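agent> Task received from the user: take the single chain below, predict its 3D structure, and emit structure tokens. No templates, no multimer pairing.
agent> Plan: (1) validate residues, (2) run structure prediction, (3) serialize to tokens, (4) report one or two observations.
agent> Step 1 OK, no nonstandard residues flagged.
tool_call: predict_structure(input=
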Amino acid sequence: MATSSPPILPISNQQPIATSAQSQPPVATPAVRAFINHLTDSVRNGFAQRRPWSELVDRTAFSRPESVSDAALRIRKNYSYFRVNYLSLVALTLAFSLLTNPFSLLLLLSLLAAWVFLYLFRPSDPPLILFGRTFSERETLGVLVVLSVVVVFLTSVGSVLISALMVGVAIVCVHGAFRVPDDLFLDEQEPAAVGFLSFLGATPSNAAPVVAARV
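)
tool_result: status=success, residues=215
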């Protein structure tokens, strides 16, 4: 008795499934670019509002304060007038201190890069995968906070930053105490957040929606 051959089953060619790496959305480069442009515009506007450096170093306008209260009043008035110049001096002091300590500068730049690429401007979906382990948003934030504490307080970065800030603030206070502000035009109606830090108090915009969504 002849045996019947088994029926031939149709075989369909299945398309390869895209890997998770191919389906991942790209890093939010438009948000990064918009945030950097917003920050650059704020710094440029701050520099445009700086006072002439010749007024800052005018030797004829220096005199000894009569009392501590007089020195404090001079510092407040001079800061209102030379705010951008003073912030520039503090920033230059910080930059000089970091450049003279390359190891601290490298650690600080590495920490900043970790915050930028691992949390601030990284898409929340899919989760972060490092060394074969998946990290949630809360775990990533916790690791970055612990890493920041270690870098700032357990290395030379913290001492370099604090010492540079103290030197910069001391320079500003000495200049403000001995600079006579009588010849300066002080606008009492000028808003307090003018200069480099003006963008911190601005109304949140679409410049960095990824950052705003994570805060």
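agent> Step 4: summary for the user.
The longest helix spans residues 156-178.
agent> Done.
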